[in-house]
Amino acid sequence: MAPYTPAPTVEPMDAKSAATAAQLWQVFDRYEGVPYSYGGTSARGFDCSGFILTAYREALGRQLPRTTGQMLATGDVIPRHQVRPGDVVFFRISGKDQHAGIYMGNNRFIHASTSVGVTESALDGYYWRDRYTQARRFE
C-alpha cells in the first residue's frame, strides 16, 4: 500500500474568477510552447506583454496597453494576498520591472518566457518568488 499523500491545498475561487481562468486556460492551451520573440504578438512568437495583450483580447474581449511599462501605468494595484485569476503580475529583472504574466489561481501564472516561450510557472518558484513586485487588475 502506498503512503498517504494529502491533496494539495486549493484556494477557493468565486464563479467570476473561475470563468476568467477557464477562458484564459483555453488561450494558453492554444499557444503553449510558442517561442519568445521580442515585440511578438502572434502565434509566430510572443514577448511577455504581447502574450498578455493577445490572451486578454481573445479570452476576455478586452484591450490592454501594448507594453509592460504602459501596463504598469494603468490598472488598479492589487495586494498580493488579493490577487485573483486574470490579474497581471509583474517581476523585476535586472533592476527594473520588465516581465509580466497573468495570474491563474492556485499560485500559478502564465507568461511568455525568454527561455521556453509561452509557459506556466509558480509564483513562488525559485526564480520568480524574489522578483515579484506587484499585481494590477484591468476591469
Automatic annotation (TrEMBL):
Highest taxon listed in the record's lineage: Bacteria
Keyword ATP-binding: no
GO biological process: proteolysis
Record flagged with keyword Transcription regulation: no
GO MF: cysteine-type peptidase activity
SUPFAM superfamilies: Cysteine proteinases
Gene3D superfamilies: endopeptidase domain like (from Nostoc punctiforme) (3.90.1720.10)
InterPro entries the record matches: NLP_P60_dom, Papain-like_cys_pep_sf, Peptidase_C40
PROSITE patterns in alphabetical order: NLPC_P60 (PS51935)
Family (UniProt): Belongs to the peptidase C40 family.
PANTHER family cross-referenced by the UniProt entry: MUREIN DD-ENDOPEPTIDASE MEPH-RELATED
Protein name, per record: NlpC/P60 family protein
